Q: What sequence folds into this?
């Protein structure tokens, strides 16, 4: 299907081409064109608001009237013409978030990319890794996430939950691929920063050197801003550094990626507390025009049970992890109880084991299936010897002479809540028991230390005690003050903080340039369509998710060495080849419908195309049943299904997965390729009553017609 | 925590929660998958991270979500 050109897409291409070809020489015309691109990208991706079109018009007028750059004037005039001629189409993109021509829709991202809070172009980098182009893969990732190696080790990988391959067998191991590519690119010296924009001589201050703060700093610095990062801790990394243990995320990984940000000229001021060592008034006086708050959630919720505040051996998990990360390797006790079921609780438990605690028990009030911690983390903790006490509700910390002696608990049972199928734990009366312990670590959640921002009296807070922002821009109610990360979401994930930081950086840029802000958060945008890798259907089905090799158990129990050892190069390339390239195949199902309902062949077993009710999938089925008619390819709106005649064969492939490969037959008359045996038989079955007998020969339509005419008149060709 | 990672959900109505913003009205009727069920353990009203088909990943209040595969 040929798509009609979309004027919005055409205008965007016009501007991008002009910028890429360096046709605009004057800095002002380049700035105006850059701003036009930002505005029209919003229009093309359905994010624009009412102010966008007038702004595009104003910028185009300004560019067209700027006489110092003739090329800029011509470009501005072209944009004005496009606007005047297609006003309704531009308005329709804004009002309906729909591109009628379908042209803008071609850039619609895959489910994995949509699931990524940072919006990384996952299919593109996975395709590049499959081809061994690791440095290019890292370049692609860093357009949306400046921490590919960190995320390759600790991301909660929401992308894998949406991975379409998971509807066939198991999701592609996207996280692991990213870690491999980052490590390889760094090792070979191919991990480099992209080119920076010229300095704007405008200053932005970032408060907090965690993933959110440093991501904002990275994108602002790339955009030419002068960025200073203020951090209370003596090192960069925030929760990545002091909340995630070293056996999951080695310090060197953080340091190397932070160094890349520092190389862009970002200034870090460590051991500097906002409100104590420096204040907003002082920073404003220094010339900072915008602020980004990424202070994280470093305080803990209290258990609120008797005895909690009476013993020094009752500690908060986040404080404990921080102390260990900063070098204090003393064990909290011999028999430790961790209260909670999240990733922080698991991290605290596994850290205790490594410090030498004799027994570590996790007390969780629900069951294993409700634990919010990552499944693999739970498994690894269990393997290492962490014990679990499920359906256990702590009611008091017991102790004697200033020392903890145990945790008094009640057993619980899961009961459906009134009017709902949802189950909640309810303590069982009279089921009290005591777990012996000499230390209790509480890991029931973190909160934000509000007093850090006491100076900002007009800052709005939510009822959850998080900073109130407009999530499309991460802007607070205070002009020029933006916020993201755990301080906004509550304790969440590294990748979510990175996404928030990137969004805030874009919003700060607009704020400082007086441009209108988008009405909704950005929908991730693909940057280009990477070529696919050809894989036979049998291989595509046979390749299974690669298991992660782990450090031996003795070292896991005794050292902080990295537990996940990473995949070998061969495993990585094979894993990457499992990707279905959902950025190209949009799973519309037209190929299946045409094959089954129109052609009545039913050669496509692609049950994974259905999001809500996936059916069986077998790419190998096609080889046995396909007639290679090409109807599926002809009806594919996105060129995902293709037919190709190559070396005497007709090949049908879906995003590089070779579904059918059959020998071609050629016309006995003219020698033209006329299809496969199955196709010819398919046609014969339907035309045998009207077709003349052709002496067992095979002819193309044209030659058959010619022969029929000659036979009818009993004329013999002279040749 | 009432929802679990990997559960299929539908945004079936507007939420009265303060975190609901006008652009979220476009999400009503969309299906998605829970990617992070809880920001604060033991908070039954915590915002959950949902990856919505065709709309990206967002934090939404729980009262606007309906589990599809329960």
A:
């Amino acid at each position: 299907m040929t798509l009609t050109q979309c004027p919005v897409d055409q205008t965007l291409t016009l501007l991008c081409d002009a910028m890429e070809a360096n046709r605009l020489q004057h800095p002002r015309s380049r700035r105006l064109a850059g701003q036009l691109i930002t505005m029209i990208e919003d229009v093309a991706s359905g994010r624009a608001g009412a102010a966008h079109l007038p702004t595009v018009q104003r910028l185009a007028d300004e560019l067209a009237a700027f006489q110092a750059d003739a090329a800029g004037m011509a470009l501005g005039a072209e944009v004005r013409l496009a606007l005047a001629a297609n006003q309704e189409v531009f308005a329709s993109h804004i009002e309906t978030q729909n591109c009628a021509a379908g042209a803008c829709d071609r850039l619609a991202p895959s489910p994995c990319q949509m699931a990524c809070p940072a919006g990384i172009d996952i299919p593109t980098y996975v395709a590049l890794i499959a081809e061994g182009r690791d440095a290019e893969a890292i370049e692609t990732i860093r357009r949306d996430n400046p921490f590919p190696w960190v995320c390759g080790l600790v991301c909660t990988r929401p992308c894998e939950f949406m991975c379409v391959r998971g509807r066939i067998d198991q999701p592609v191991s996207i996280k692991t691929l990213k870690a491999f590519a980052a490590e390889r690119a760094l090792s070979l010296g191919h991990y480099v920063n992209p080119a920076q924009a010229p300095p704007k001589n405008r200053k932005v201050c970032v408060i907090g050197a965690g993933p959110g703060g440093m991501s904002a700093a990275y994108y602002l610095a790339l955009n030419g801003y002068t960025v200073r990062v203020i951090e209370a801790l003596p090192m960069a990394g925030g929760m990545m550094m002091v909340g995630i243990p070293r056996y999951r995320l080695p310090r060197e990984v953080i340091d190397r990626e932070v160094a890349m940000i520092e190389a862009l000229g970002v200034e870090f001021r460590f051991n500097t507390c906002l409100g104590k060592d420096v204040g907003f008034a002082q920073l404003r006086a220094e010339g900072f025009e915008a602020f980004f708050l990424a202070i994280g959630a470093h305080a803990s919720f209290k258990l609120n049970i008797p005895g909690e505040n009476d013993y020094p051996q009752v500690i908060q998990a986040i404080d404990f992890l921080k102390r260990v990360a900063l070098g204090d390797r003393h064990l909290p006790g011999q028999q430790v109880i961790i209260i909670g079921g999240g990733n922080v609780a698991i991290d605290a438990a596994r850290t205790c084991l490594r410090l030498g605690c004799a027994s570590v028990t996790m007390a969780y009030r629900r069951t294993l299936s409700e634990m919010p911690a990552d499944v693999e983390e739970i498994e690894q903790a269990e393997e290492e010897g962490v014990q679990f006490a499920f359906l256990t509700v702590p009611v008091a910390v017991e102790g004697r002479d200033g020392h903890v002696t145990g945790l008094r608990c009640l057993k619980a049972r899961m009961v459906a809540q009134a009017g709902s199928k949802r189950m909640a734990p309810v303590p069982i009366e009279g089921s009290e028991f005591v777990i012996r312990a000499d230390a209790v670590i509480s890991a029931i959640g973190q909160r934000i230390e509000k007093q850090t921002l006491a100076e900002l009296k007009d800052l709005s807070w939510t009822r959850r005690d998080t900073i109130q922002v407009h999530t499309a821009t991460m802007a607070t109610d205070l002009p020029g003050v933006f916020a993201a990360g755990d301080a906004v979401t509550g304790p969440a994930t590294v990748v979510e903080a990175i996404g928030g930081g990137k969004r805030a950086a874009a919003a700060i840029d607009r704020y400082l340039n007086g441009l209108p802000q988008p009405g909704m958060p950005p929908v991730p945008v693909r940057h280009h369509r990477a070529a696919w890798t050809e894989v036979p259907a049998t291989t595509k089905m046979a390749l299974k998710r690669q298991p992660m090799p782990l450090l031996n158990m003795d070292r896991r129990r005794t050292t902080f060495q990295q537990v996940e050892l990473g995949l070998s190069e061969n495993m990585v390339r094979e894993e990457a080849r499992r990707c279905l390239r959902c950025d190209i195949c949009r799973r519309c199902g037209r190929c299946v419908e045409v094959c089954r309902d129109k052609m009545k062949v039913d050669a496509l077993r692609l049950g994974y195309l259905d999001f809500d009710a996936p059916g069986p999938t077998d790419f190998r089925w096609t080889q046995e049943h396909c007639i290679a008619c090409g109807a599926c390819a002809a009806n594919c709106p996105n060129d995902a299904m293709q037919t190709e005649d190559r070396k005497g064969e007709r090949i049908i492939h879906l995003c590089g997965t070779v579904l059918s490969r059959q020998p071609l037959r050629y016309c006995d008359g003219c020698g033209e390729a006329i299809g496969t045996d199955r196709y010819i038989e398919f046609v014969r079955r339907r035309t045998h009553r009207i077709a003349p007998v052709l002496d067992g020969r095979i002819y193309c339509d044209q030659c058959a017609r010619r022969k029929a005419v000659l036979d009818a008149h009993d004329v013999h060709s002279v040749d | 925590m009432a929802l679990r990672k990997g559960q299929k959900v539908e945004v079936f109505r507007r939420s009265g929660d303060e975190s609901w913003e006008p652009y979220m009205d476009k999400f009503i009727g969309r299906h998605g998958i829970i990617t992070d069920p809880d920001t604060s353990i033991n908070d039954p009203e915590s915002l959950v991270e949902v990856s919505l088909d065709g709309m990206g990943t967002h934090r939404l209040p729980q009262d606007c979500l309906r589990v599809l595969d329960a």
